[in-house]
Amino acid sequence: MAHEQPEAGWRRFFVAEASAATGFTPGPIAETVAPTSFSLPSGPPSFDPIDLLVHAPAAAERLRLQRDRCSEKHAAMIPHIELQEAIAKRTGDEQNFQRLQAHPQDGGFGLPPTDARVVAAERQLARSRDDARRAQERSDKLAAAWRAASLPLAGCEDLLKHGLPSGVQLLDYDGPAAAALLLKGEKNVIEARENRGRRAREIKAAIHTIQSSRFPTSYCKQSAREQVELLARRGAVSVSRLVEIDGELEWPLTRQTSEVIAERRSLAFAEVPDTLALIAWLHKDALITAIDREIDAEGDDAGSLSHEERLQRITEAQSDLLDIERQEAALVYAAWEHGLACEHRADCNPVAILGIELRTVPRADTLPETSPGYSWLRK
Q1: C-alpha–C-alpha distance, residues 364 and 28, integer Å
Q2: Amino acid 300: pLDDT
Q3: 313, 210 contact by CB (below 8 A)
Q4: What is the model's pTM?
Q5: Cβ distance 169 to 359 under 8 Å?
Q6: Which of 179, 235, 354, 361 has its CA 20 to 30 A from that of 369?
Q7: Among candidates 359, 360, 356, 378, which has minimal Cα distance to 369?
Q8: CA-to-CA distance for 225 and 280, rounded, in angstroms?
């Protein structure tokens, strides 16, 4: 006899009672199945940045290599539970060693240091401390190796997801092979990669020097004059009402906002005399002369750069930096092929790491997605 479900048994019991009381023949009992809700998948479809490298197969393969290497580094890390067990074992041995020597009134056994049990506990504690130290050092070393591999990968994927301008096509960069990049005196790819990294740091330092250079005093004086002239015009006193209708002078005013401290936060607005603008209107020439004197004392025309010179030098330095970083990235991939321990720098340009170039393409008749994977084209 088949076993009945409890719910079905209760139903039959109540149906039998109702039919006996009313005399009506009960209808068939059917098990009710809860309806399955149907809904569209929430969120946008999955998007892999590698889909943007359709026209750059070599760059797509480099991105896969980085992902595989990052996964291998992560898989080699010590499980957190293993490190916790080593630390817990050390803590337990420390407590046991202390308890053996502690006074009985503190819950210990009061054993002397020469007791065999104390000596054995001390040796066990030394082993557990050494095991915990080794596990922590190994964990830190493997975690650092994983971070060194994951940071450049994160930079490349962030570029593909959020850093690309619109209207560009990603193509493979056709550069020289790694063997052709070895300069005279460089023995292997590791030494060549270190030299390229050193050169990249020198170029970045040169860019910082250019950006930190001062502007010519002539430009600063001209800019100061324009600012003082604007301030003086704002501070001019209007006598029109006085001349025309015997009214009052119109003094320069400025609007100020203040925060009122009370039970509820509120703001107060007021118009007050613009004293600074009024001074600039009254003593414009003296103010300009004083500012010029300060610019001469602070300026350095020998090492100054104008906006145009600054932009030109930075552009040239950034072009040289990209070329050096392309060589460095090619040497890193060559080192991977030979099984050498070498990683991309975290601050290396992702364009150089992927080995791509951005080419502007004409706008198509059909508009592309605003955000790849996060919008759909309307037909």
Answers
A1: 66
A2: 86
A3: yes
A4: 0.72
A5: yes
A6: 354
A7: 378
A8: 11
